[in-house]
Design brief:
single chain, 332 residues, 83% helix, 0% strand
C-alpha cells in the first residue's frame, strides 16, 4: 500500500512542473511504474519465502529474471531503446505478478468480505510498530546501496554516469544473490538461536559471512582479470569503465557476504542495526555533498566506486562488530 501511494505521488509530480533528476516526464512515469511493479512482484513472492518454501521462491525470481533478459534482449535486437526495454520488463513483471497473485489468493481461499472486515478492525499498535521498523529498515538498506549512484547521477556527465552504471552491474548481481542466499540462511540462523543460544546462531553467521567474504575476495581478482579481457572484445565502447570495476567488485564481495544484519534482526537488535546504517549513510552523504561539492573529486567516477566500497565494507564491519558484542553479552 505504501509503495503504491509513493509511486502514485511520483507519477503526478510532472503535473505540478517538477520532475526529479531532470529526466523527461514520460521516462519518469515509466521508471516509477517499473519500480512499483518490481516491488509488487517481490511482495507477492515473499509469500513462498514466509512459508519457508525456498525452492518455489527462488524459481519465481529466476523465472522473472530469465524472462526479462530474453524479452529485453529481443527488444534491443529489434532496435528498441531504453524506454522500450523498460516497458518490456514492466509487462513481464506485471503478467507474472498477476498470475502469481491469482494463484496465491485461490490457494488460501481469499474472501473480500473477510478482507474488508480485517481492514475495518485495523492493525494493533504492536503490528504498526513492527511494520514501521520494517519500512525504515528497508528504506535505509536501499539508501545504503544507492547513495553513491544518486550522488553520481547528480554530478557526473551522462557519459560518465553511463560508464559508472555499467561497472555497477556486479553489485546488482551481488545484491540479488545475497537475497537468495539469505532466504535460506535466515531461517537456519533463527533455528540455531531457538534450538541453542545466541552464541550458536552467531557461530553459524560468522562461519558463513567470513567464509563467503574470503571466497568472494578471491573471485574478485579472477573476475577483474576476466572483465579486463572480455570488455575490449565485446564491449569496446565501455573500455573507459575498466578502472571502475575492481572497487565495485570488492564492494560486491562485502555485500554478498553480509549476513550479520540477519543475526541482529533475529536477536531483536533492530534499533542498533538501523542506527548503524543511518550513521554510515549520513557520514557519506554529508561529506560528499558539503565537504567535496564543487571539487574535482566529485567529477571523477572512480571516486564514487570508493564511496560504494566504503559503504559496503563499513556496513559489513559495523554489523559484525555489533553481532560479536551481542554474542559476548549473551555469553556473560
Amino acid at each position: 500500500m505504501i509503495t503504491s501511494v509513493v509511486a502514485l505521488l511520483l507519477c503526478v509530480t510532472p503535473m505540478f512542473g517538477y520532475v526529479p533528476l531532470n529526466v523527461a516526464a514520460l521516462a519518469l512515469l515509466i521508471a516509477v511504474i517499473h519500480g512499483w511493479a518490481q516491488q509488487s512482484f517481490m511482495l507477492i513472492v515473499l509469500d513462498s519465502r514466509s512459508r519457508l518454501e525456498m525452492v518455489p521462491y527462488s524459481l519465481q525470481i529466476l523465472l522473472r529474471t530469465v524472462l526479462c533478459c530474453v524479452v529485453a534482449s529481443g527488444v534491443a535486437m529489434l532496435g528498441g531503446g531504453a524506454l522500450d526495454i523498460l516497458l518490456a520488463e514492466l509487462l513481464v513483471t506485471v503478467v507474472l505478478s498477476v498470475t502469481l497473485l491469482k494463484k496465491m489468493l485461490q490457494g488460501i481461499g481469499f474472501s473480500w468480505a473477510v478482507f474488508a472486515r480485517l481492514c475495518k478492525t485495523g492493525f494493533t499498535k504492536k503490528e504498526w510498530h513492527v511494520a514501521a521498523i520494517l519500512l525504515l529498515g528497508t528504506t535505509l538498506s536501499f539508501l545504503s546501496t544507492s547513495v553513491d549512484r544518486w550522488l553520481a547521477a547528480d554530478v557526473l556527465s551522462a557519459k560518465q554516469f553511463g560508464l559508472y552504471s555499467f561497472a555497477w552491474i556486479p553489485l546488482v548481481a551481488a545484491l540479488s544473490m545475497q537475497a537468495l542466499l539469505n532466504a535460506g540462511l535466515f531461517p537456519l540462523i533463527a533455528q540455531r538461536r531457538v534450538a541453542g543460544s545466541d552464541q550458536k546462531a552467531l557461530r553459524v553467521t560468522a562461519l558463513v559471512s567470513v567464509g563467503l567474504l574470503l571466497a568472494a575476495l578471491v573471485l574478485v581478482l579472477l573476475a577483474n582479470k576476466l572483465i579486463a579481457w572480455a570488455i575490449p572484445i565485446w564491449y569496446g565502447q565501455y573500455q573507459d569503465a575498466l578502472p571502475l570495476f575492481l572497487p565495485l567488485l570488492a564492494a560486491a564481495a562485502f555485500r554478498v557476504s553480509d549476513f550479520w544484519s540477519s543475526f541482529l534482526i533475529i536477536t531483536h537488535r533492530h534499533v542498533s542495526l538501523l542506527v548503524t546504517q543511518l550513521i554510515l549513510i549520513m557520514v557519506a552523504f554529508v561529506y560528499c555533498r558539503f565537504a567535496l561539492d564543487g571539487t574535482a573529486w566529485m567529477q571523477n567516477p572512480y571516486n564514487f566506486t570508493l564511496l560504494a566500497l566504503f559503504l559496503a565494507a563499513g556496513n559489513y564491519f559495523a554489523n559484525a562488530s555489533l553481532a560479536f558484542v551481542v554474542g559476548r553479552r549473551a555469553a556473560s
